[in-house]
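Below: protein 1.
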Amino acid sequence: MSLKSLADKCPCGSSPCEVLHDKVSLLWGKFQDMVDELQAEMDRNEAKYEALRVDLTTQMEIIKVAKGRYMMLLAEVISNLNADQSEQAEKEQQKQELDAQYYTFMSACRKEIERIICDDIVAWYCIRNAVMAHSVATNKGEKMIQDCEVTYWLPGDCSVGCDDSCPTIFKPNDDPYSCGGWQTLTVALSQT
């Protein structure tokens, strides 16, 4: 039923339907204002959302570019780390080979020192003691044989300043004296 048909059925001249119509109109205006306010709020929220979406999309693009750059840097660091580990393994192998050469050479040096002490120095002491046992001068105490006192070994100048042509690793058949120079050590008798 329409409002007009309701108004026609009202018994009095000024019908309560008109009052009702006014109240409904006020309520409709109030609800229309609320709808307008909600629409304005929705428009504001949509604008905020759109700005936030654009901002987040821009940030994601920046982060994606930064991630790509950092992935490249990470790959470079991993590559450098692998190269360093490989070089460390080579250096460790070189150290083991040098240590083996050093111990072999030092063993030969110790054997040569023992040979010199046993064959040369002790032999001279034996000869001297034998001579002293048959010497008339030492038996009478007139003259005692005294061993010479000597100074420490003094290093001289090296025959070359620095020889960079020497290899860093000598192979077993290489001659270690093929490069570098010589340094003379001297010892003097001390005056007592």
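Below: protein 2.
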Amino acid sequence: MHNSGCIICGAELQYSNDYFEIQCNVCSKTFTSNVKCSNNHYVCDSCHQFDAVDYIENYCKNSGESDPLKLIIEIMKNPKINMHGPEHHFLVPAVLLTCYYNILNKHELLNEKIAIAKERGQKIPGGFCGFYGNCGAGVGTGIFMSIINNATPLSKEEWRLSNLMTAKSLEQIANNGGPRCCKRDSFLAIETAVDFVENNLNVIMPKHKVKCEFYTMNKVCIKTDCKYFTVTTR
């Protein structure tokens, strides 16, 4: 399995304006999609993130970390986490929830809260950023805010904060340009969420400076145009 490009062969993914029926090479189910790799492989979202989602859930539930950027990088280093993929849509709220409740000394709430984030995050399909104009990492911060405030469609202030959180994250992601990078977008979303939580909920989470360790796996890395890009020499 490859963690960049096609997870079957590592070839570049090809996106089309036209949708077609195609069979997943892992589960053999048939889907309607507009993406496949240059070798005609297709892997559905469920199979793409299967191992990663369980790993994220277990790691966060057992973590005492309070720095969300440190925690997300620790998790991203595991080969189960692909360079790009819908698992990041769950990863962002899971990391934020973990650190938020650890800071409040309410670790016992994590099992329930992370399970909710998992259910919601997995509903955001891959390619959401390009096809819907709504990056899943940014949506993940809204999921986080909704969960900690118990927001519903009928809430007032909680509804406002959840939507504003997503809007702030998407603005930062958009202003840092494309093409998509799930690592860059996740870092931006979390940095925005840390500031938002401090300003609106008076909860302070650490926010250390990120130096990207994943750019060599990203064939469309924007390099020096990315605020996290740092070339290290040995």
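DSSP finds eight helices and two strands in the chain.
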